[in-house]
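U., I forgot to send this yesterday:
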Amino acid sequence: MIKKSADDDARLSGTQSIERALTLIREIAAHNRTGSRLLDLANRTGLQRPTVHRMLKCLTMENMVQQDAETHRYYLGPMVFELGLTAAPRFNLREVCQPAMTRIAEVTGDTVFLTQRSGFDAVCVDRQEGTFPIKTFTLEIGMRRPLGVGTGSLAILSALSEDEVRRVVTANTPRLPEYGLSPTSLVAQVKRAQRLGYAVREVPSLAGVRSIGHALHNQSGVAFAALSVSTISSRMNEKRISELATMLKNEARLVEKQLERGGR
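Result:
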């Protein structure tokens, strides 16, 4: 039997603490619009309430998290925003995709979204409004949801390998019911998107809204982001779905070529 040393235990404990803190921050980010109670965070992370309380206290002291004095709900703190500003120049996906998003919005008149994968989640990183008077803001910039929830997010998941799809769905299984999904229904949506070559769905949270999305691949050919368009269902019949799918595919290819050139 190989015995673990005290240093091994310390390293394991340190790594575990970091993983728990990051899990907590991601959960707060996923519900940052409404905030999260201590009990909510304990339930969603599977951590004990005293543990979550200690971690929140530490994160609050470091300005990574802040608590509303009246509701006692937790939100992301200013330090997260400051770190994001520092990291932005190295991750210029928004800048690279802006011309494509503008073209799509101008041609379609509808709302265009840019979604990026973040671990087992997907984050809306940009949004471009079209001229059509009825707006369909299905996502806010910064909104984080499990990968596969949302059309752009589904497009990313559907473009991954079967093993990776299985890994993501398994990891997100406890969170899916909150979004009206089960592992079985999500896998069915993935398979449909794989057959079509793009994701298209009615938006569960907004009646009468339909979205279509196409994945973006990095230089290694791995899906990591997606462009999507949302509008009222009456504007997205089968003919227009085909037209939008072609447009998104073409714009995605242009973005991928630019990324291959280093974003220049």
